[in-house]
Amino acid sequence: CKKYFEHNFKRKMFFIKNFEKHVGVNRVVGSLWSYRCAYQHIEKFLNEKYKLTDIPFTALDRSFVEKYDIHLRTDCHLSLGTIVNLTTSLKTVIKEAIADGILTFNPFWGYETERPKRELKYLTEQELNLLMTTPLNNARLYIVRDLFLFSCYTGISYGDMCTLTRNNMVKDENGTLWIHTSRKMPQVVVIHVGKIIWNVWRN
After folding, report:
1. 59: left (phi over 0), alpha (psi -120 to 50) or beta
2. pLDDT-derived band of residue 135, with 50, 70 and 90 as boundaries?
């Protein structure tokens, strides 16, 4: 797998380098980090289980995939969500290899990893009020708290918070303040507490 990355880089088909070019266009930096992380785990797996630094794609089969899954669970002690992300990244690279004619079969055929049950976590109104009124001991924590509360009262994700600017804040004809982002997701209305925080920090 490693050779696929490196060898195809020399032929301008290097998966991660090619992905980097799309960051900010139709890919996000978080996905790039995911592929780099997946690469590191594959490298570690090959070294620990096979004493190899590389393996040809033609040597990959269902057994390899299942051993990799067990390695992530038992040796790395990773959560189900992380295992899903890592195996999905590997599956994507393998699909690229199939598309390029390097592989004629899919080693993931019939493989399904267990997916974690989503647990919805939330703060109660009492907990939010306690968070808003608790004195803090330095200015940085006040900023962190305001950012967290802004996300609570708007539903905006951490990733969108990191790139939020004035241009994302739009008022409609009724004077309602909305957050518009470039991602394919519903636009977010800013309710009262979120407006107060935005007015404090918008400059």
Report:
1. alpha
2. very high
Among 64, 66, 68, 60, smallest CA distance to 103 is for 60
Task: Give the other-Cβ count within 10 Å of 83's Cβ.
Answer: 21
Torsion, Cα 164 82 118 108, to 10 degrees, reads 120
Nearest CA among 186, 24, 168, 109 for reference residue 177: 168
List, in order, residues 6 or more apart from 184 with CB less than 8 Å away.
Answer: none
Of the candidate ranges 48-57, 77-86, 134-143, 186-195, the one whose mean pLDDT is the lowest: 186-195
CA angle 92, 98, 100 (to 5 degrees): 105
Angle at 89 between CA 22 and CA 53, to 5 degrees: 105
**Residue 161: which residues within 8 A CB-CB, separation 6 or more?**
147, 150, 151
The model carries a pTM of 0.54
Beta-carbon count within 10 A of 88 CB: 13
Beta bridge partners of 179: 169, 188
**Could you tell me if 152 and 128 are in contact, meaning their C-beta atoms sit under 8 angstroms apart?**
yes
Side chain identity, residue 124: T
**Block residue for tokens 């189900």:** 80
The alpha carbon dihedral of 33, 38, 43, 49 has a sign of positive
Q: Which residue has the tokens 């009724």?
A: 174
What is the enclosing helix (H) or strand (E) of 6? helix 2-10
